[in-house]
């Protein structure tokens, strides 16, 4: 009886350790909105929220792509280049003509997919680390932006795209509603479909996924393609909101996308994540930026906060939270057991251990 009770308590702790990181950001966001009026008067007024929500939606869409890459044990540094390229193309290709918008969007989608495929092949086929691969592609895309624009963006986006970016439905910005729809769709795929569960398994344990017969490289490549499409969509929406995007419009979005993922609780070591929590993290950061700007703080303070969030997430990525939940203390602390590196043989899945995992995660 005591053994059963202990096992149930341990299971409860593990469940709370798994759910906690995804739910903490909700409490933080509620607290931030509650204290915002005291920090900056008018920061939660109707006009302030209407101005903030479109940018929160754009950040959430880009952060969804970053979440998919992080779940596959990567970190995508191509966010600025892909967003800037999309903004430049959707401005350059139509040349102000509304009837060419469809062609521009097709060109943007093809360019983004090509970037994702290139990164995916570099990582899965050539063994290049994600940081190096994405950084190289980011330089390539930024160079392409300079080439196709001649160093400056002289045109504005077509009027129909500009009207779309400024539109509202029942007083809610269209861009925010679009972000909600994308996040809901991706979350449903991840939680309710076989492909989504396999995607998480590949990120959590590629070796076990291979044993189960899953095409690991295909899912990893797909993550980079989907992420690049998310960045491109965010770049197009940013251009629609500003009408005349800057040459490197995506540069301010690299650090916030990573910070939103960390705030949302997705482990930088890969595996299970939550795009919904990431989106709430994007909302938290957007509101925090608005409060800081309204209180007179400059962008340096925003960068310090976002950098601290990322640094904290990187520092905690290797903490064995399940062991902490069971023992109540960090490994290596006073009285704790010494850490022992497992041998290669101990990491090989056994038939008895993998069968429940395959039944739960794959079928």
List the helices and strands in order: HHHHHHEEHHHHHHHHH
Largest sheet: 2 strands, antiparallel
Cα radius of gyration in angstroms = 22 Å
Major beta sheet, strand line-up: 1-2
Distance between the termini: 33 Å
**Structure classification:** mainly alpha
* Number of E-type strands: 2
Low-confidence stretches: 334-363
Percentage of residues assigned to helices: over 70%
Determine the number of helices (DSSP H or I, runs of at least 4 residues): 15
> Can you give the mean pLDDT?
83
- Estimate the strand proportion: under 5%
Approximate shape: globular
**Quaternary state, please?**
single chain
Keywords:
two-stranded antiparallel ribbon, mainly alpha, single chain
Describe this structure in words.
The protein has 363 residues and is mostly helical. It contains 15 helices and two strands. A two-stranded antiparallel ribbon has the order 1-2. β1 (168-169) and β2 (172-173) form a beta hairpin. The longest helix has 38 residues, at 2-39. It is globular, with a radius of gyration of 22 Å.
Summarize the model shown:
The chain has a domain at 56-252 and 268-274. It is mostly helical.
Sequence-ordered SSE layout with sheet pairings:
Elements lengths: L1 H38 L6 H26 L7 H14 L8 H24 L5 H20 L9 H8 L1 E2 L2 E2 H19 L1 H11 L1 H6 L4 H27 L11 H10 L11 H20 L4 H18 L4 H7 L23 H11 L2
Antiparallel strand pairs: 1-2
Helix pairs in contact: 1-12, 1-14, 2-7, 2-10, 2-11, 2-12, 3-4, 3-5, 3-10, 4-5, 4-10, 6-10, 7-8, 11-12, 11-13, 12-13
